[in-house]
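Input for the complex:
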Amino acid sequence: MPLIWLRVAVVFYGVGLLYSLLLLSKKGNVLGKVVEPAVGLGLIFHFVSLVESAIEIGHLSWASIQDSESLLAFLAMVVFFIFFVAYRTVSPGVVIFPIVFVLTFASALGQKPITLTSPFLRNGWIFVHVVLIFTGYAGLFLSFGASLLYLVEERALKSKRSTGLVNWLPPLQTIDDIGYSSLLFGFPFMTLGLVAGSVLAIDKYGPMFFYDPKILLSFIMWAVYMLLLYTRWSSGWRGRRAAFLATFAFVVALGAWAANYFSRTHRFIAS
Amino acid sequence: MNFIVIGVNHQTAPIEVREQFAIPEARLPEASKTLASYPGIEEGMVISTCNRVELLLRTVNGNADIQGFMRQFYGFDPAPYTKYLYEHRERDAVRHVFRVASSLDSMVVGEPQILGQVKEAYATARAVGAVNSQLDALLTRAFAVAKRVRNETAIATSAVSVASVAVDLAKKIFGNLQGKSVYLVGAGKMCELSARHLVAHGAKQIYVANRTYERAVVLANKFNGHAFPFEQLYETVPNADIVISSTGAPHTIFSKEHGEQFLHRRKNRPMFFIDIAVPRDINPEMNKLDGIFVYDIDDLQQVVASHIADRKTEADRAEAIVQLEVDKFQSRLQTLDVVPTIVSLQEHLETVRQAEIDRVRGRLGTLTPEQELAVETLTRGIVNKIMHTPITTLKTAARESNEATTVVDLVRKLFGLRDAKKSAAAAEPGMNDGKPGSHS
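Predicted:
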């Protein structure tokens, strides 16, 4: 059952993806009226799916790649909606919707959730660690999306040609606010998530845990995150420079994610 | 219908002529009232703005001595001005009213004020009872058409002038202008105008610097702002989010290096430079800096021009909407003409039927429910059969407009129907639900 709900959610997220693609291909704001309810419904079905799967196996499942992708996509959507309510603009969705769609789609392709093999994962602290880290990721995604939009709009304003996409975008200031506040929002989650993870790992593996590629990448990402905030505070970096940093952080985040395939500490199923 | 519009506007008459016909606001109620009570005129309303003066009226039988009214009201003979006056009747009048309300007849097509002015004129005329039935329906429809045009075309969304383009751009950069500060370099008229626009949209603090300090002070006082001596220009500019420059300097006064300093001082918060000086005050290289946006007068005018180009196609779309609405309104009005008569015919025959049943009820004794039903069905059947032909005839007449009044009169006479006004009021909802024939 959870998989069916997840697939329904994927269909609704598909509307979001289509919306983004149409906007980017300059077809204009075609699905503007339906995209918010569609992704909203997607989020609800997604939630149902997560809850059902949690009931089935007795707790939230994130151990397989599929499960964690689903959880990450869900948190990204939740964060997106928090900012949507705060700023009344769907624009960061142009970047968020495709990411969420790809994550949920990959997750929905998977088989029935596998029952966990490692009793270690039943530890409540692991749950806290994962949710914190993923919420941090979600904030980073949103900030990355906003910084790309900032760049696009800044270019358009400077070139003095107003294209359809730019007319549709909210004011530069709003995009800037979204980028910055999502960064601020995600940072404490990311930090606490890493702290929780480190404590757990030291407890279980001893100090050697740090040499795991995923953990290394995670700390690099955290450092870039920190750098982003620092440059913003100290010299108000925006636009191009901030976008480069955010993109870098995003790539490292992807790397940290992909590192699950090489990581020992995070391979709970295969072992 | 018998609608007539007569008037002068910016296209047909020069300002000197329009002044002659202009009616001060205080006299508008009186004007509408006099017009509506003039012999041969049923309803009337007067619109007087700086670009147009129009008399809109509905006559009793298609003709009225409007020149006579003008002579009486204005106290001069309008004959010498005939060549400046335009006149539209019936369908054309409806179309004209729709176009005016939708701002298609305006000097700046799409400007929003005209709708408000027409609404005011309507409210004034309505308040003195000069507008009540068909003219009321026409105006109500005109407002709906204007709304449709505004919603379905982009005609009203395009900005109008250089100053308002500057405001639009500032909003695109800063979002809300609330609490933003504006720096005026030079104390010229254009600077002042742009500043006024920005202040009207929420800009808070105004700074002024000018070669002649006294003039800066005068301008700053107009906005409760702050004046700086020109020597302090470079230190104080970073305080402002928006800079409008229009000095008479023969060379640029802001270079790219200045821009870098400003950004550094502002911690890279964006700045918007509007250069309306010719020759330019701001080196265009500054636009290459991250966070600084420079628009010169040509850039601004280009935006204005592109909006005007858009506006042409949008205006065509708007005209199409108006045309469609004119057709709709006309057929609606025509059907409406006969609706009151049909309604009162039905009411009349129903009263007769009820009265007859009541009369014979005593003689019939107690009836079983089945018998009761049979009596109902029988009498109703007879009434409907009798009504059928008159109603169809009325409806056909309504479609072929010229006959309608004759047939309506005939039917009323034959059946002895009265109270046309009251029934018309009762039929009013039919106007709004879009199914005027639903009463039959």
